[in-house]
Specification:
2 copies of one chain form a homodimer. By secondary structure, the first copy, chain A, is of the alpha+beta class. The first copy, chain A, is about 35% helix and about 25% strand. Chain A has 2 domains: about 260 residues, L-amino peptidase D-ALA esterase/amidase (4-Layer Sandwich); about 120 residues, ArgJ beta chain, C-terminal domain (Ubiquitin-like (UB roll), Roll), CATH 3.10.20.
Chain lengths: ~400, ~400
């Protein structure tokens, strides 16, 4: 979807993918390697039944900076118990040995079906082939290699002046279903050349994820394998203690995660139309986010949009589901595609046919003004279609 | 679905329905009348954008005992502002006048599309016709008259010895979509002959709803018009201060609401298969309920069941979504249709084909043992099908 340099176009970043035979056809084993990585950070799923890749990588991150990310797709190696955990450990060991790294310097991620063990033999052979020459520059192949039910690759590139230097962020992501990040996300991997500490990078990533990956939902389901990782090559020194520079870097990173999140929601299983719900005038930002989330998560709003039905009554219902923040239905104002459809507790005299036609589009915007405070938030969801049922009835 | 006496078979309970022209075809204006009602209670939607019927009836209940319930179907008269509220008031006034009651003795309920005003002229003519003779005994017609997208009527009847007397509870309900009660329910109306105080009846109803109507979900959406009401004729004196008698009455009422809740979930839009999720061994009952709710609410579990796929990986994912209670994935045990599919952190060696075939049934049971405590709960949901998409893409 987005153009621009790939992750391996950044100096000091290497990437490659091969077909190891984990899934049927296509690249399924990938790496991103930053041999001189100076900082790393990660945000992980809050699912209480995480995959062994999540458990390992979360632990590794606590020990220091990781320098390589190895990703398998087609199999999440989740719910596979001690044997699955031991498979993950084997992969980590092999990669560490190949690259002369400590095991805690190897991050692993896996995506695909839950509950099946990885074909370890194939993965081991794949690792041998992949790291014969670890200094490859095939970022586009990795963007492809991490996909499962996705219908297109998701890449982002941003750059911005931070102080007198230009810093770059490049990233890739995968995700299409089981998308309702909870303090984490699908798989997302980013690299930057900004020289910052891991602590600062962690804060910046957490903030970026909170505003982007955590504000999209395809189906309210939270994967057991989600993670977003970022690695810094440290080539471009910036002053992270300078508030302006810190902010400039954070906005660059956030813009990159925003681009990726938008591509994920655009690729929502079975969906063509994105629903963008913006809430303002809530008592708090958190309250606004809760309301926006109820709108994008409502199956009845999602099916109405799919049917090109500007059914504001269902939007009103979804707003009213909020229990954590106050709402006054007499003060509420609801816009669909910039048309006011509801105010002062009742529908306006809008042109139904015209509005209905305006829903035949890529993105439907729903705006809510609570007129109670200054809280604002935007969340993104997608329509619910028979395509979603098809994909998920048959996926196994 | 269930047989037995209708609500108006109880002594002192009158009921009738007519076709007033609110919706196309079928009964759409109904009443349940208990002229000598001695107690009443109600539980209402927690949706913050309630319909004017909810606002009126909640208020009426605070003032005392109501004696008649008037229900319109096909139009929820929600989101219709002051004009809609004034329509509701007009209905209340007319019914009160006809029956010689105070306005606070008239409960109103409405169900159907949100955001359209009622055809008040037709409703007024309907009230004239309906209450020409208010002493009718057509409970079955009322069970039919309160339906919208439902495919069958929902009725319940229970009776039990309380002390030396036999008390009866009869009820009706409607609901098929927009079903995720939040401290309330769809429409449900019950009558009993047990002579109890309104305060006791309220406690009993709140408890019954919490265990039954509030444990079902079709689509996680919470209606703006939900209410469950109960009226007592007071014909059978019981000792509500006697713990055994109090408990006996509560269990009779709970059994009636359970029967109705089961019929609603069985009629879930587009669904044929009910998903029954029972969780035990959680740290608390609330924790068990949270886990069970995540299972029945997960679109990916629902589509898997629809595809007759015993996808325990998605069940594990749904369990892990719980944030309010602790889970240990190594201790978890998961059964599908009484077959152990997961324990000690990994899948068992179950017979996939046999289990797959066992999912071609009316009710699929999912049992989870957390092995952490004594908390238990059961929740009921239904599969997610193309039928749901059809119904809700076109409904307006």
């Amino acid at each position: 979807m987005s153009s621009g340099p790939s992750i391996s176009d950044l100096d000091g970043v290497y990437a490659n993918a091969i077909q190891a035979g984990i899934k049927e056809g296509g690249y399924d084993l990938s790496y991103i390697y930053v041999p001189d990585a100076l900082a790393s950070a990660g945000v992980f799923t809050k699912n209480q039944c995480p995959a062994s890749s999540v458990i390992h990588t979360r632990k590794a991150l606590k020990r220091g900076v990781f320098k390589v990310i190895v990703v398998s797709s087609g199999n999440a190696n989740a719910g596979t118990g001690e044997k699955g955990a031991s498979d993950t450990q084997q992969i980590v060991k092999s990669v560490a040995k190949k690259l002369g790294l400590k095991q805690s310097e190897v991050a692993v991620a896996a995506t695909g079906i839950i509950g099946k063990r990885l074909p370890l033999d194939k993965v081991q052979l794949g690792i041998e082939a992949l790291f014969k020459d670890a200094y490859q520059k095939h970022g586009e192949q990795v963007a492809e290699g991490i996909l499962t039910t996705d219908t297109f690759t998701k890449t982002a590139y941003t750059s911005q002046k931070v102080g007198k230097k230009t810093v770059q962020v490049a990233g890739i992501a995968k995700g299409s279903g089981m998308i309702a990040p909870n303090m984490a996300t699908m798989l997302g991997f980013l690299v930057t050349d900004a020289k910052v500490s891991s602590a600062f990078l962690q804060r910046a990533l957490t903030e970026a994820v909170g505003k982007t990956f955590n504000r999209i939902s395809v189906d309210t389901d939270t994967s057991t394998s989600d993670m977003v990782l970022v690695l810094s090559t440290g080539k471009v020194a910036i002053a992270e203690n300078d508030p302006a520079q810190a902010q400039a870097f954070k906005s660059t990173l956030t813009e990159a995660t925003h681009q990726l999140a938008q591509q994920i929601i655009r690729d929502g299983e079975g969906a063509k139309t994105v629903i963008e719900a913006t809430v303002k005038g809530a008592i708090t930002h958190t309250g606004a986010e809760e309301i926006a989330r109820h709108i994008i998560d409502s199956p009845l709003v999602k099916t109405a949009i799919h049917g090109q039905d500007p059914n504001w009554g269902r939007i009103l219902m979804a707003i009213g589901k909020s229990q954590g923040t106050k709402i006054n239905q007499k003060k509420l104002m609801i816009n669909i595609q910039n048309n006011r459809v509801y105010q002062e507790g009742a529908p306006t005299d809008f042109d139904l046919e015209q509005l209905r036609q305006s829903l035949d589009t890529d993105t439907v915007s729903i705006e809510v003004d609570c007129q109670l405070g200054t809280g604002t938030a935007t969340c993104w969801g997608c329509e619910l279609t028979k395509g979603y049922i098809d994909i998920n009835t048959a996926y196994n």
